[in-house]
Write a structure and sequence with these properties.
With 181 residues, the protein is mainly α. The chain contains six helices and two strands, in the order H-E-E-H-H-H-H-H. The two termini are 25 Å apart.
Length: 181
Amino acid sequence: MKTKINFIYYGLLSGLIIIVGWIIWHLIYVKDSQINFNRGEFLGYTFMIIALSMVFFGVKTYRDKSLNGIISFRDAFLNGLIIVLVASVVYVVGWEVYYPNFLSDFGNQYQEFTIAQYENEGRSAQEIDQKKAEMAEWLERYQNPLVRMPLTFMEIFPVGLIIAVFSALILKKKPGNRETA
């Protein structure tokens, strides 16, 4: 039972780091209710990677304290996956609270930003009109939480999956192997 609590702890910690990242992102990139998307995505993914580093620390702690320093790739990956799943759920729930309360105009602003990028790139009127139609359709779907929640989950989960694989590769250790991360 203690092991499961550790994975939940590291998953929750990872999710909370991301929420702190949103607050910092909000303070830096949201001015007068206008979002600056130019660097916001970079900062967002940077916080995701920092937060998901808890996968490495959670698996390492489990390996060192519960398994006497020995863990297979499979077990390291599966335990990292648990942390990623918990962090991803926290991320989705956090966004469902954050979005309507602090960024309710996010979708409209993202739509305007994307169209402005197309215009600044010198795209044809036909391409711009097509993008406007795509973005209007996206915005309509994004208003539905049953659509938004899986999209939000898929922002973080693949990043976490990659980190879980790398963590398992680094942390795996067979009996008799002296090398450890």
